[in-house]
Specification:
heterotrimer; A mainly alpha (about 260); B alpha/beta (about 250); C alpha/beta (about 260); B: about 250 residues; alpha/beta; Rossmann fold; four-stranded antiparallel beta sheet; 9 helices; about 40% helix; globular; C: about 260 residues; 10 strands
């Protein structure tokens, strides 16, 4: 009977360990300085690794949104708002989610494999013996890089999605470029930009802490590394969806307060 | 001097070290032998704080270190240089940067002094001139020696070596063992070597400890061990004694 | 004349532009047990994999019981391959299967035995390698020595008459190593199989081999029986078996000390 609940206990205790690891990281961050060079190297790596896929996916997201909205909006003669609506949707919801999944699949898996390999080949032990802190030297630069890069990538994805939307707007929906762009500033409000940035930040933090933690606590040789990579993929996807729900709720409440205060 | 008192280490429900007592004298070369999975490496990792014992005490030069924090362990780790079973070199760094890694963190050195220390320690392991290579460009035996150089560059008083020759052919094995012996004597370190290689232990150890099932079953000088009546030790020695009898 | 178990003629192997082996002309007779020794990284495992048909030579011919594995296919190839057993260096056990199912795997794949018969064979093999108690455990729940035993049991499950072992005692302590070789010899005696094994450990080579080959400098030297090997004139072989640090094998790469 207890066996049915075992997975839930595992999830709870694993979540506890991830949170604990997060605070350990913050503690190290507070006390010690992070090497700029290491951090920039990682930011560069993460951004370069993911920019092509992000750009491609961003383009098609814009295209999909345009096609979907066109079908609904044609009947109301509201095609003029096409650009504004699909951009708003992308920045608030689809963009951050897309970036998070992109990073989870590529950078998350890569990071946990990299740290996992260093763990099982005793490199992390060696770092400690050589007088350095592996959290400071390895984990934090990667963590920070993932969070910062996610904003770059969000921007890139957004630009490409507007581009994709414009292109499809013109050739599929018959909306010319000026018309497509015209309502973007009016519909895309400050709250939706803030909400998008906030989501992007939360997803990146969740993803970064899970993949570094999984890699860092790998056990059991080459097989263990494989296990860590799979676990990273699964738990980040689930965690991001949950985080999406939580941030949507938060953003909603914040928006209501914002509107009331006006 | 190093002293373990009643050391206990568990992993989950498996007890790997079962109240182990061991004293290691300053300046000696001690070999720790035993069957696989009997906690030999765990012993070394407890000494430098990579693992924490569940019970017992660890004394290093008059200090009880087992409850030390990560910060307090820093001077201990400078004193106790550890060479891992894997070469554990950092793949993305050159040999030079691998060796300089610990020097930059443990010692206050100028760039020039660092340079000198790196080339000196590479010379000690007979590998001069590979500073700018990446670990992947070296053979496994060479990687092991760079790993040794990285550790001795910090001039440790105590040298801990975990299975230095596992998976190496006989010629490389003997070369590495000889190197450990020469370095220990030249640098006057206390050395603890975890190994499977009884022949080598008999050749170069001052004292040998044999472990089984998380405890010590016998210890003594090579000559004392040769006369041991403990079944496991006799088993370890049987082929060697037989070979010697043939000659 | 009966067909040789394995026949290598003018075999040459080139990997990524560098020659690993050349001019290899050797024969393994039925009932032989060959130990392949030699310095690390010189192609011992490659030689083994070529004989087992897992790697194709760049040039030359490999005949297993008179058949060229790279030329035959289908049922005819399967018939030869089924008679070959192989223990990999890392055991290559399936970690999602229990120990019992690991042994049952090749039986289910290849034979027509029903489940009851398979279970009987599995029980026999677990018994033979001394790990009956581990039948329902998973490979990562048992020790390294036991994993080796399981690997051996699986390699032998189809009752092969030609068995390859890639460094069967690597990383094991000497006592466990000796037990593993004892096991290999005992099982070999039972089904009078031909055995080829790579090893780094001369004691194990002496314990098991009827012939010793040494892979060195891209060649394979047949050093003969254990006694002949011990007396061999080739200085490289002498250095290797005594483990002397100085000698012809002392390249800057071999890990030996240069003055």
């Amino acid at each position: 009977m207890m066996a049915i609940f075992q997975p839930f206990f595992n999830i709870i205790s694993e979540t506890g360990r991830v949170v604990q690891f997060f605070f350990q990281m913050l503690d190290v961050w507070k006390r010690k300085s992070i090497s700029r060079d290491l951090m920039f190297e990682q930011i560069w790596k993460v951004t370069v690794q993911s920019s092509a896929t992000t750009a491609l996916a961003g383009f098609f997201v814009g295209a999909i949104m345009t096609v979907q909205f066109t079908m609904e909006m044609k009947d109301f003669g509201a095609l003029g708002y096409l650009g504004g609506l699909s951009t708003s949707g992308t920045i608030r919801e689809v963009g951050p989610l897309l970036i998070a999944f992109m990073l989870a699949g590529k950078v998350g898996a890569f990071t946990s494999a990299e740290l996992g390999t260093m763990r099982v080949t005793e490199q992390i032990d060696a770092i400690r013996c050589l007088g350095a802190d592996p959290i400071q030297e390895l984990v934090l630069p990667r963590f920070i890089a993932i969070v910062i890069s996610s904003f770059f990538l969000l921007g890139l994805g957004l630009l490409l999605s507007i581009f994709g939307g414009m292109l499809l707007g013109k050739y599929f929906s018959g909306v010319n470029y000026e018309e497509y762009l015209r309502h973007i500033p009016t519909i895309v409000s400050l709250p939706s930009i803030l909400s998008g940035l906030f989501k992007c930040f939360v997803f990146a933090v969740v993803l970064a802490v899970i993949c570094t933690h999984r890699g860092y606590s790998t056990t059991g040789g080459a097989k263990g590394v494989g296990r860590s990579v799979v676990q990273t993929a699964v738990s980040t996807m689930v965690a991001i969806v949950i985080a999406d729900w939580a941030t949507s709720l938060l953003a909603d409440i914040a928006l209501k307060i914002f509107l009331r205060s006006r | 001097m190093i002293e373990f008192k009643g050391l206990v280490k568990r992993f989950g429900d498996r007890t790997v070290l079962k109240g182990l007592d061991l004293t290691i004298n300053g300046g000696e070369i001690l070999f720790v032998l035993g069957t696989s999975g009997t906690g030999k490496s765990v012993l070394l990792k407890n000494l430098v704080g990579l693992l924490k014992p569940d019970a017992g005490q660890i004394w290093i030069d008059g200090e009880e270190v087992s409850a030390f924090s990560e910060e307090q362990y820093l001077p201990i780790r400078k004193k106790c240089g550890m060479v891992f079973q894997h070469p554990a070199l950092f793949d993305s760094l050159t040999v030079f940067d691998n060796i300089a890694f610990g020097i930059r963190r443990h010692l206050q050195c100028t760039a020039k002094e660092t340079q000198q220390k790196v080339s000196h320690s590479l010379k000690l392991v007979n590998l001069s001139g590979v500073e700018q290579k990446l670990p992947a460009q070296l053979s496994y035996g060479m990687q092991k020696r760079v790993s040794l150089a990285r550790t001795i560059a910090l001039e440790p008083k105590i040298l801990l070596v975990d299975e230095p020759t596992t998976g190496l052919d006989p010629v490389t094995t003997n070369a590495i063992n000889q190197l450990i012996f020469e370095l220990s004597r030249k640098l006057k370190t206390t050395s603890i070597v975890v190994s499977h290689d009884m022949q080598c232990a008999l050749d170069i150890a001052d004292r040998i400890v044999v472990m089984d099932q998380g405890n010590i079953v016998d210890q003594g000088t090579p000559d004392e061990l040769r006369k041991s009546t403990v079944p496991l030790v006799k088993d370890f020695l049987s082929e060697i004694l037989q070979k010697e009898a043939e000659q | 004349m009966a067909l040789a178990a394995i026949n290598l003629s003018d075999v040459k192997v080139i990997f990524e532009g560098s020659t690993i082996l050349e001019n290899v002309n050797l024969t393994v007779q039925d009932g032989d047990s060959v130990a392949i020794i030699g310095p690390s990284g010189q192609g011992k495992s490659v030689l083994l994999k070529i004989m087992a048909g897992l790697v194709l030579p760049t040039e030359g011919k490999v005949l297993v019981r008179g058949e060229n594995l790279s030329e035959i296919s289908g049922a005819r190839r399967q018939k030869v391959v089924n008679k070959i057993g192989m223990l990999f260096q890392k055991n290559a056990l399936f970690d999602s299967l229990t120990c019992g199912d690991n042994i049952a795997f090749p039986l289910r794949e290849v034979t027509d035995l029903d489940e009851q018969q398979i279970q009987k064979v599995v029980a026999e093999f677990l018994e033979a390698v001394g790990i009956s108690h581990a039948k329902n455990l998973f490979p990562d729940e048992i020790s390294g020595g036991m994993q080796k035993r399981l690997g051996i049991a699986r390699a032998l499950a189809l009752n092969p008459d030609l068995i390859f072992y890639d460094d069967p005692t690597a990383g094991l302590d000497p006592i466990t190593s000796r037990k593993i070789i004892d096991l290999i010899l005992r099982l070999r005696a039972q089904n009078s199989a031909t055995v080829v094994a790579v090893t780094n450990d001369m004691n194990r080579a002496y314990q098991m081999a009827s012939r010793i080959w040494m892979v060195v400098d891209r060649q394979v030297v047949d050093a003969g029986s254990v006694e002949q090997t011990k007396q061999h004139q080739d200085l490289r072989i002498q250095q290797f078996i005594t483990g002397a640090i100085r000698g012809p094998l002392t390249a800057p790469d071999s890990g030996a000390i240069n003055d």
